[in-house]
Each structure stands twice: as structure tokens, then as C-alpha cells.
UniProtKB/TrEMBL annotation:
Pfam families: NPHP3_N (PF24883). Keywords: Repeat. This is Nephrocystin 3-like N-terminal domain-containing protein. Gene3D superfamilies: P-loop containing nucleotide triphosphate hydrolases. The keyword Repeat applies. It comes from Parachaetomium inaequale. The lineage of its organism: Eukaryota, Fungi, Dikarya, Ascomycota, Pezizomycotina. InterPro entries: NPHP3-like_N, P-loop_NTPase. Residues 293-469 form the Nephrocystin 3-like N-terminal domain.
């Protein structure tokens, strides 16, 4: 403990000397510049030489007090930085002594300045600047290593170190800081030490130096090469903090992964209608074979592909399989995901983790990107396994433990590295199954996305179930994987849905009582024309029920159904074409607004667009950094 305190005290002396050394470089350069201000700079140099001499003596005294034989390796680095700093300061003082600064009267400063320029060359000043910057960098790296080493010691030893530093500070502080104040703060061992190292009588100067030093140490923490993915380097997990603080820091790190729209997409996916999709866990029939999903979930096979046309219900099926049952399900069914009963047979008693992500083309940037995929999966996985957080984010965990802050933004490459690390670590003891929906809604290279997902499962026992439209890029990459084409198996589900919607409407019931044969044929025709596309059915049933509400005759309903295009995109086009021309201009404004926005526009922005004379214009020009602006205010 005594050696640690001596090393940190020595580091504080080094910071003081380098501070004065850097000021000397700045002042010397001002003297070298031509102009009347050089006289004032030379006067400042006289005062600076006295301060430099004083702190150099303190540094030398601190060096003499250190027992180098008992220092840790990182603390020896601090001692080496102190020796180099002491040598640099002494060289400055030796040169300044030759000028006789202390005996130079004000009237002869101009001559002394000329002598200074003869004694100091511009290259000397530049070399001195580089030398002091190198000392600061060396000190920062060794301080970061020392702080990590101290933080791995017991909490009692950490408190003892902080108590001693507090006492030293109080002995030299007119404000008399209480000696037990620092440990009580529990703000991070590193933060407290930095406060001691940056201590100055001038509070503003001390705060600035503390901020600079903290930033430099955080840079050293993040500058370390992270442990290899195939190794378990638990050094960061051994950083000693109280259990309550450890829990709070893990929560803080998890909250940095969270984003507001994380659960939006799965929340907007329709719940499967009663009695639909239950066939997914049955054995395949002979007439329409598919790869048995239930058996796949129980097997060691790793990748399953659900494909189907747009609107065929892929997302609804993925939600049906992977998400817990909501309230309103049969009371005898447990509130858990349906896939779990099958996955438990695969896990065979091992812990089981299920996580999912839904790409969404209509959502925000994170909902269409790899960054959103990484954040969402990491959040879900680490919420269940908070114990591995220090191993998954070693640099961030160290920054939090030492400084109580994590200022570095989460970059996509770090998120990918961390997700890969989490999966590799957990796969050794835990069975993991991932569900990723909407691969076709990813805003990027789809081939690259497939490669990413296949790399995740390569060399592990992790399972992934994916869903997408049957695009060529997916068919070529996944054609030999277990799969099913959804529209081939949803005839009965769609019939159940249509029957339920129709018979739940009083107008249809009246029609059925009058024209029951036509009503039954209408159900059958809707189901067959749907060709397995749930979304088409939903729109068409709503259209037919609307006609019944307005008293359409049987022949009218027949024409209405015949006139609706069987293709979903054609149906959307038909809906747009049927807009009242009176609203075309306003609808075009709304579409322009949506096209110009990188993120979905807010309700407030839509309300502004609904004004008779909105005070903004639409623009799709990119801002700096690549994001697009939604609107641009007009000058009033």
C-alpha cells in the first residue's frame, strides 16, 4: 500500500513538472516570435523559472522516497517517467542559469531576450515539446495500468490507498479536505485518484487538468488491444467494486445498448388468429412436405429458413413461434414462447437462451441495420447473463469501474465484436437459439448479412431461424437448408380467419341468413384468391365488410371481389388510384415528407404539414455525416 501511495504521489509531481515544462515551451516560443509581446513573455519566463525549480525539487524528493525494489511493473513505469521528467527539467534550469534570469533587471530584458534566442534554437524548443509530450503519454499509459492493478486489489486496500492520498491532500490544502471524504464518495477508484493527481489551489485550473487527465486515461483504457475472441480473459471481471455498485454499473452498460424503438416492430406484428399456425409443430403432410420445425428445434441442425411472399404472415409466424403468449390465450397454456418446449429437448438440461430481432424497412435506421441487430440481441442475451458483461465489454467495464463513465459511443464494429464474444463465451455452457425476421428489410448488402449470420453459428452449437421473402440472394444461399414456403401451408389458416371475420360481423350474418350459399362461396373465393397472403385477405375482407355495411347487393359484392387485384402490390396501387383527386396534392405532400425523413416523422411534424400554409419546405439533401433532413424552416 505504501509503495502505491508513493508511486501516485510521484505521478502527481511529474504532472506538475510537465505542466510547467509545457508552459515553458509555450513561453519560449512566444519569445522566439518577433514583436513587442516577446518582452512580456520574457518577464513571464523569469517567474516561470522559479516555479519550475520549486516543483523540480519536489519531484527529486519524491524520487528519493520511492523504494523501487518493491514497486509493481506499472509503478516502475511511473518512476521511469519521473526520472525522464526530472532530467528534462534540470536541462532547462541549467540553460536558464547561464542567462542569469534572477539578476536581470527589467531595463535589460531586451538584451537578455536576444541572449535567450542565441542559447535556444527553434529546433531545441520543438524537441523539448515532443519530449514533454512523450513523458505525459508514458505516464498516462503506466497510470492506467497502475489504476487497473490497484482496482484488482481488495476493497479494504483500495480504501487505505485513498485514505492516505486524502491525508496528503488535506495536509497541503488550506481547505482541509476531510481525510475520509474520498473513499466515501465511491465514485470510482480512478476518478478519486485523478482528483488527487490534478489537485491545485486554483479550482478552475484543477478541474480542467482533472478533465484532461481523465480523458487521457480513458483513451489509454480503450487503446489497449482487446483479448482474443477465443480466450477468456477475466482480468476486468476481477476489478473489485462493491456488489451494489457492480449491479448498478451492469445496468448502466445495458442501458447504453437500449434504444427507444427496440420493441416497436414486434409490437406492431399482428398476433396469430386463434387456431392459426398451430400446424407448424405438426409432422409434415405427404401432399405438401416441409422440414419439420418442431424436430429442427429439437435437433442439432443450426439454420432454418422460413420464406414466403410479401404479406404471407412470416413475421406473425415468427412471433407465434418465438414470443411468449400474451394475455387472452387459453388459461391452461403457460405464458412462455411455444418454441421452448421443443428447444428444451435440444438443450437437454443445459441453460437455454432465446433472443430475437425483427428488421423493419418502415422503421428507424437502427431497425434496418446491423447496429440495431447487435444492440437488440446483446440486450436480450446480457439481461439473462449479466455475469459475462465484464468479459463481453472489457474496455467499457474497466472505464465504468474506474471512472463511473463510459463516454465512447458504441460503434458498429465494437457491437459486432461484443456480440460474437458473448455468443462464444456463453455457447460453452448455454444453448442459444436466435430468431431473425425480415432479412429482406435489411438496409444493406443482403449477401453480407447472410455471411454474418452463418459466421455466428460456424464452429458453435448456436441455432438461428431466419425469415425473408424468396429473393434470389436468399434462395442461392439457403436452398439446401431446412425450410418452408409459408403460402403453401396457410390455406386453412386463412379460411379460419376469413370465416371468423365474416361471421363476427352482423351485416354478413344477415347476408348469410338470406343467401347462405352465396355467403359460403364468398368465403371460399376470398380464400382461394388470397393465394396464401394474409395481408391481402385482411384488406379485402375489410373492403367487402364495408360494402355490406353500405347495403351492397350480392352482385355488387361479387363485382367488388372480382375487381380487386390478386397481387398485393397491385392492390395497394388500386387503393392509391381510388383516392379522391381533391386530396392528391395533400397526399403528395405526405409522401414527400416520408421520403425526405431518415426516421419516421413525429405526429407534431405531421400536424405542421397539415396546416393550410406550412412554414417549412421538404428537402432530401443530406446533412454532413450522411443523414437526411426531414424539413427546412422558411424564413418568416
Amino acid at each position: 500500500m505504501a509503495e502505491a501511495v508513493a508511486a501516485l504521489s510521484l505521478a502527481a509531481n511529474v504532472l506538475q513538472v510537465t505542466d510547467f515544462g509545457i508552459r515553458f515551451v509555450s513561453t519560449a516560443w512566444n519569445i522566439w516570435r518577433s514583436g513587442p509581446e516577446s518582452i512580456e513573455a520574457f518577464a513571464a519566463l523569469q517567474a516561470l523559472s522559479q516555479d519550475l525549480k520549486s516543483v523540480s525539487v519536489q519531484l527529486q524528493t519524491g524520487q528519493n522516497a520511492v523504494q523501487t525494489d518493491h514497486l509493481a511493473a506499472s509503478d516502475k513505469g511511473i518512476f521511469e517517467a519521473a526520472r525522464e521528467c526530472s532530467n528534462a527539467a534540470q536541462e532547462i534550469l541549467d540553460r536558464l542559469d547561464k542567462l542569469g534570469l534572477q539578476s536581470t533587471p527589467a531595463r535589460k530584458r531586451d538584451a537578455a531576450r536576444a541572449s535567450f534566442k542565441l542559447l535556444w534554437k527553434s529546433d531545441d524548443i520543438k524537441a523539448l515539446q515532443a519530449r514533454f509530450e512523450g513523458i505525459r503519454n508514458q505516464l498516462t499509459l503506466n497510470l492506467a495500468a497502475s489504476l487497473r492493478g490497484y482496482a484488482m486489489q481488495s476493497l479494504e486496500l483500495q480504501d487505505n490507498i485513498l485514505q492516505q492520498l486524502s491525508k496528503i491532500q488535506a495536509d497541503n490544502d488550506d481547505r482541509k479536505t476531510q481525510k475520509d471524504e474520498l473513499p466515501k464518495k465511491r465514485k470510482g477508484f480512478g476518478s478519486t485518484v485523478v482528483g488527487y493527481l490534478a489537485f491545485r489551489r486554483d479550482q478552475s485550473e484543477s478541474a480542467a487538468l482533472e478533465a484532461d487527465l481523465r480523458d487521457a486515461l480513458l483513451g489509454a483504457v480503450y487503446g489497449r488491444k482487446p483479448p482474443a475472441l477465443d480466450t477468456v480473459d477475466d482480468m476486468e471481471s476481477k476489478l473489485n467494486v462493491t456488489s451494489d455498485r457492480s449491479c448498478a454499473l451492469r445496468t448502466q452498460l445495458l442501458s447504453s445498448l437500449y434504444y427507444d424503438e427496440m420493441g416497436d416492430r414486434v409490437g406492431t406484428v399482428s398476433e396469430a388468429h386463434d387456431s392459426t399456425f398451430r400446424w407448424i409443430f405438426d409432422e409434415p403432410g405427404q401432399d405438401r412436405p416441409w422440414t419439420d420445425l418442431g424436430k429442427w428445434l429439437q435437433s442439432d441442425d443450426q439454420l432454418y429458413w422460413i420464406t414466403g411472399k410479401a404479406g404471407s404472415g412470416k413475421s406473425t409466424l415468427m412471433k407465434f413461434i418465438s414470443q411468449p403468449r400474451t394475455q387472452g390465450q387459453a388459461s391452461d397454456e403457460p405464458a412462455e414462447a411455444r418454441c421452448l418446449q421443443h428447444l428444451r429437448r435440444w438443450s437437454d438440461g443445459q441453460p437455454l437462451t432465446v433472443a430475437s430481432f425483427y428488421f423493419w424497412a418502415a422503421g428507424t435506421k437502427l431497425q434496418t441495420s446491423k447496429a440495431g441487430l447487435y444492440r437488440t440481441l446483446l440486450c436480450q442475451i446480457l439481461e439473462e447473463h449479466t455475469d459475462v458483461i465484464p468479459l463481453v465489454f472489457p474496455e467499457r467495464w474497466e472505464a465504468l469501474c474506474l471512472f463511473n463513465e463510459d463516454p465512447k459511443a458504441l460503434a458498429e464494429d465494437e457491437l459486432q465484436h461484443s456480440l460474437t464474444r458473448a455468443l462464444l463465451l456463453l455457447a460453452k455452457t448455454t444453448k442459444i437459439c436466435l430468431f431473425v425476421d425480415g432479412l429482406d428489410e435489411f438496409d444493406g448488402d443482403h449477401g453480407n448479412l447472410i455471411e454474418l449470420l452463418t459466421r455466428i453459428i460456424d464452429g458453435t452449437s448456436i441455432k438461428i431461424c431466419v425469415a425473408s421473402r424468396p429473393w434470389v440472394v436468399f434462395e442461392e444461399a439457403l436452398k439446401n437448408k431446412p425450410s418452408l414456403r409459408l403460402e403453401d401451408f396457410t390455406f386453412n389458416d386463412i379460411k379460419e380467419y376469413v370465416t371468423s371475420r365474416f361471421h363476427g360481423d352482423s351485416n354478413f350474418e344477415q347476408l348469410w341468413r338470406r343467401e347462405f350459399e352465396f355467403a359460403d362461396r364468398l368465403v371460399e373465393r376470398v380464400v382461394r384468391k388470397a393465394a396464401g397472403v394474409f395481408l391481402w385477405v385482411n384488406l379485402v375482407v375489410s373492403s367487402l365488410l364495408n360494402g355490406m355495411k353500405h347495403g351492397d347487393r350480392v352482385s355488387d359484392l361479387q363485382r367488388r371481389l372480382d375487381s380487386l387485384p390478386p397481387d398485393l402490390e397491385d392492390l395497394y396501387e388500386r387503393i392509391l388510384d381510388n383516392l379522391d383527386p381533391f386530396y392528391f396534392e395533400h397526399a403528395a405532400q405526405y409522401f414527400s415528407l416520408m421520403g425526405a425523413c431518415q426516421e419516421p416523422p413525429s405526429a407534431l411534424l405531421f400536424s405542421l404539414a397539415d396546416e393550410d400554409k406550412p412554414n417549412f419546405s421538404f428537402s432530401s439533401k443530406p446533412r454532413s455525416g450522411g443523414t437526411r433532413t426531414c424539413w427546412k424552416a422558411k424564413s418568416m
